[in-house]
Write a structure and sequence with these properties.
Layout lengths: L4 E12 L2 E12 L3 E5 L6 H9 L6 E6 L13 E4 L11 H9 L8 H7 L16 H13 L5 E5 L7 H16 L3 E5 L3 H7 L2 E6 L2 E6 L1 H6 L4 E6 L6 H6 L6 E5 L3 E6 L3 H13 L5 E6 L3 H9 L6
Parallel strand pairs: 3-7, 3-8, 5-6, 6-7
Antiparallel strand pairs: 1-2, 1-4, 8-9, 10-12, 10-13, 11-12
């Protein structure tokens, strides 16, 4: 049975003057899942999300949000959008802003309880927006995106500027949204955030999708793992490699630190340890390392995500 998509993007294109910001981009966001959209600056992800949110129009291709045109005003009560800037009254207090947004929905969450949930209580709730810290503004924007009980939420860098505690509480909130059946499409520069939250990761570069899949699929697919251990200096690595599958690599670092590369599966691990046992070598601090999502991102885009 085909997946039901909350967001469907097919061959989307968008041009600004001579620049083709989005170039035949396609992906889908299944209902009830969290999808992380990653890409270096200028990759086209912001333009793509703004088209999905209904704030821009594509030049070509098809975009459907909850089965309809994203510009359809009937979608507004069903979709929550977290904005990085704009849409705020600088002089309005945090609690006033959230109550104002809640008033536009038929069955909103309780604004006071939601403010407490995101950590904006006491004086913070009564502080004008312009005087909130950057992190507090992020938390208020997040609350405004979810207060209307949306079916679909767009989150733009939801934890940017937050301290460690607030980041983890925000992650918990996103996981609660998913558990409640809410679909989430988020952009982030935090690889640990994408690995923790996303059911699916879509990596965009130069206006095109260059990879898509679960974090596990992306870090496993085509990846050569590393097996690391410490042992006496000067092991015969040619002899070790003769016991391993063709294409494996081995190197000795300073101080008897060894790195063995290949498709690290149970058979590979057994072959290395069997060779060590047969040669009287005790591999200390033996550990398996696989490529991280950030490694995959850098390999595919040639860029490192901004910190």
């Amino acid at each position: 049975m085909a997946e039901i998509l909350a967001v469907e993007v097919v061959d989307l294109s968008k041009t600004y003057g001579p620049t083709r910001a989005v170039d035949g981009l396609s992906f889908g966001v299944p209902v009830g899942t969290v999808t992380a959209l990653l890409g270096p600056n200028g990759a086209g992800k912001t333009t793509t999300v703004e088209i999905c949110e209904g704030f821009r129009r594509g030049d070509g291709g098809l975009v459907r949000v909850l089965g309809t045109d994203p510009a359809d005003q009937k979608l507004r009560p069903r979709v929550g959008v977290m904005l990085q800037s704009g849409g705020m009254y600088p002089g309005a207090r945090a609690d006033e802003m959230l109550r104002l947004v809640a008033a536009h929905h038929a069955h909103p969450l309780d604004p006071a309880a939601l403010l407490a949930r995101v950590g904006l209580t006491g004086s913070a709730a009564r502080t004008p927006f312009r005087r909130l810290s950057g992190g507090q503004k992020q938390l208020l924007s997040l609350a405004m995106a979810v207060v209307g009980r949306p079916e679909l939420v767009f989150l733009d860098e939801p934890t940017a500027g937050l301290d460690v505690r607030a980041r983890h509480e925000t992650w918990d909130l996103v996981e609660e949204l998913r558990a409640a059946g809410v679909t989430v499409l988020l952009t982030t520069h935090a690889m640990d955030e994408a690995e923790r939250l996303a059911d699916q990761v879509v990596i965009v570069n130069r206006g095109k999708v260059v990879a898509a899949g679960t974090p596990a699929e992306l870090t496993r697919g085509g990846a050569e793992g590393e097996l690391r251990f410490r042992a006496p200096v000067g092991l015969d690595l040619d002899q070790l490699l003769a016991a391993l599958p063709t294409g494996s690599q081995a190197a000795e670092r300073a101080g008897g630190h060894y790195v063995v590369r290949g498709t690290v599966d149970p058979a590979f691990l057994a072959a290395v340890t069997a060779w060590c046992a047969g040669n009287g070598v005790l591999p200390n601090d033996l550990r398996v390392e696989q490529r991280s999502l950030e490694d995959v991102f850098v390999d595919l885009t040639g860029s490192e995500l901004a910190r």
